[in-house]
Amino acid sequence: MKILVKIILLSGLILSLAGASEQIKAIKVPGNIGKIGPLSKAWLSVEYTDVILYPHTTTKKINPEANIPEENLKAKKVRVKALYDGKNISLLLEWKDSTKNTQKDCCTRTYADGFAFQFPTDYSDVMKLPYISMGSKDRSVVVHLRKASEQVSKPKSNVHFHSLEEYYDTSYTTVQDNEDVENGRTFVMEGFRSIVEIKDKNASGVMDMVYKEGVWKGTLSRELKTEYLDLEKGAFPISLITWDGNVSNSDGIEYLSPWIGVKLVGERGGYELLDSLTTQVDGYVANGKRLAVENCAACHNFTGSAKTLVNMAPDLSNVGGYSTLQYLKESMLDSSAVVVPNYNPTAEEDFPWYTLDENGNLASTMPSYHWMDEKSINDLVAFFSSLKAQSEE
Question: Which secondary structure element, helix H or strand E, spans residue 274, and what is its range?
Answer without folding.
Answer: helix 271-277
